[in-house]
Write a structure and sequence with these properties.
Helix content is about 55%, strand content about 0%. It is mainly alpha-helical and about 60 residues long. The protein has a domain of about 35 residues. The chain is elongated and about 45 Å long. The two termini are about 20 Å apart.
Length: about 60
């Protein structure tokens, strides 16, 4: 799981946004969770690997101190 975050602004049609929000509510997930999953899947599909931000800090000091 990522420990740091960055903001990504995406412009979408308002009707699509409303439909996404309604579907997410029915599935008990947030739109952000869905978008993060889509990004992870897209990267994996194209063979792109990455180390989640903040992981290097945890590996150095697992207690987070």
């Amino acid at each position: 799981m990522e420990l740091k975050t960055a903001r990504l602004t995406v412009l979408v049609d308002p009707a699509k946004k409303k439909a996404l929000e309604a579907l997410c509510m029915r599935q008990d997930v947030t739109p952000s969770q869905v978008i993060r999953r889509l990004i992870r899947d897209y990267l994996a599909e194209h063979g792109v690997t990455f180390e989640p931000s903040g992981q290097e800090d945890v590996e150095k000091d697992p207690a987070g101190l």
